[in-house]
Amino acid sequence: MNRSKKEKEKVQQFKTITGASDKIALDCLRATGWGIEAAIEYFYASGLQGAVPNVDMRAIEALFTRYKGEPAGQGRARVAAGGDPSDGVIMAEGVGRFCDDLEVDPSDIVMLVLSWRLNAATMCEYSREEFVGGLQQLGCDSLEKLKRRLPDIRADLRDPAKWREIYNYAFNWAKGKNQKCLQLDVAVGMWQLLFAEDRAWQHVDAWCGFLQKQHNRAISRDTWVQLFEFARAVKPDFSNFDESAAWPYL
Known about the structure:
The structure is a single chain. This protein has 250 residues and is mainly alpha-helical. It contains 13 helices and two strands. Helix 10 runs antiparallel to helix 13 (221-233). The chain has three domains: 5-51, Helicase, Ruva Protein, domain 3 (Orthogonal Bundle), CATH 1.10.8; 57-156, Recoverin, domain 1 (Orthogonal Bundle); 177-233, no CATH class.
């Protein structure tokens, strides 16, 4: 649900004072009827400050502004029209520069995992809340700190529970806005990325080839989720395959 301009201002004010994340700010403000002073008292009385990494929020905001790349005239026009000066989105070009500065290929799966950590809704985009709040929770207020965290972020793929979450997250992240299904070419690219290295499923190329030749239609969420279960449960030689089980249906 979209928040009003006044609510956004209060969230930002609360975060500036406390260094809290968007989620904590919202929880405290909602719990106290959107009163700033009461919310701050609630924050400290509840001991929530211990959940806030010690970071320089101004440095994170500066990083967001750096990659947002909004022309100055456009920003002034939006503010003059009553828009929130903290609004904005890092688009594909800015994400590309972000990857360059991190010395990471945009197609590296670590960027998918990082986006999952930032709770980003859309591929090649970061809203202000996603980017600033996510880096705050990671405890990273500089590119150097984030670079040092990348091995830990990549390691999430080795955790079975997180790996499942990342796989399921990838469907919504990669599909187009307002789309229910994932375009086939995008799904194929995502499967080849996700089922690689130590997560390899040896039939991924055959599966993708079959879809491209015989199916040639968008992929539903049900098919996406069921394929993961199939790849994890069925042995490579199909010796334990059960035809009566609920496997991917096209």
